[in-house]
């Protein structure tokens, strides 16, 4: 089945940027690298999404989620600046939904633990942006994580549910 992206969303009056972020830890069996996926919606319409393999191997689910969250945070800040240039100012924090509580706790910690010291400082961007008030993390249960569709194979019911929540709609078959 072919899908198209429906623009317009569900709530065009409130144009707050909202994100969903996920990772599939060590999902590539050939090199055990993880997959990051995130999407952003504005007024309920999906305006940005990415699914890509992470550049290095991570040693835990939390670390894979933290890397994905750093990538999503960078995109959120870029989108906020773009929206500002278009006079769609974001006067509130951009909420990014995350389904890994360990990752969220790690962002909230002021100090590193011995077992997380190896995580590259480039991924600590999210901590800075949360501290500045530009980003706010919110827990999202795994069964409601829209970004799952970008990181792993899903069954038909979840695929249909998340595709709908992304604004993807079936399109007529143009082939023949």
Account of the protein in words:
The protein is of the alpha/beta class and 176 residues long. The protein has one domain: 2-Layer Sandwich (Nucleotidyltransferase, domain 5), CATH 3.30.420. The chain has four helices and seven strands, in the order ββββαβααβαβ. It has helices at 61-85, 101-108, 125-132, 156-166, and strands at residues 3-5, 17-24, 35-42, 45-53, 94-98, 135-139, 168-170. The chain has a five-stranded mixed sheet. Strands 1-7 form a two-stranded antiparallel sheet. Strand 3 (35-42) and strand 4 (45-53) form a beta hairpin.
Rounded to an integer in angstroms, the radius of gyration calculated over CA atoms is 17 Å
Strands ordered across the widest β-sheet: 4-3-2-5-6
**CATH architecture term:** 2-Layer Sandwich
The overall pLDDT, averaged over residues, is 87
Number of spatially distinct domains: 1
Shape: globular
SSE layout and pairing:
Layout: E1 3-5, E2 17-24, E3 35-42, E4 45-53, H1 61-85, E5 94-98, H2 101-108, H3 125-132, E6 135-139, H4 156-166, E7 168-170
Helix pairs in contact: 1-2
Descriptors:
176 residues, Nucleotidyltransferase, domain 5, two-stranded antiparallel sheet, alpha/beta, five-stranded mixed beta sheet, globular
Would you summarize the structure shown here?
The protein is an alpha/beta fold.
């Amino acid at each position: 089945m072919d899908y198209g992206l429906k623009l317009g969303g569900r709530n065009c009056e409130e144009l707050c940027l909202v994100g969903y972020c996920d990772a599939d830890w060590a999902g590539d069996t050939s090199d055990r690298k993880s997959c990051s996926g995130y999407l952003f919606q504005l007024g309920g319409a999906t305006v940005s999404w990415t699914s890509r393999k992470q550049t290095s191997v991570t040693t835990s689910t939390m670390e894979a989620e933290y890397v994905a969250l750093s990538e999503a945070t960078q995109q959120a800040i870029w989108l906020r600046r773009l929206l500002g240039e278009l006079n769609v100012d974001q006067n509130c924090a951009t909420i990014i939904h995350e389904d890994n509580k360990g990752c969220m706790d790690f962002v909230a910690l002021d100090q590193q633990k011995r077992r997380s010291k190896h995580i590259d400082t480039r991924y600590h961007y999210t901590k800075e942006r949360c501290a500045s008030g530009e980003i706010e993390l919110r827990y999202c249960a795994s069964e409601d994580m829209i970004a799952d569709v970008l990181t792993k194979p899903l069954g038909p019911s979840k695929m249909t549910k998340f595709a709908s929540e992304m604004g993807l709609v079936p399109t007529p078959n143009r082939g023949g």
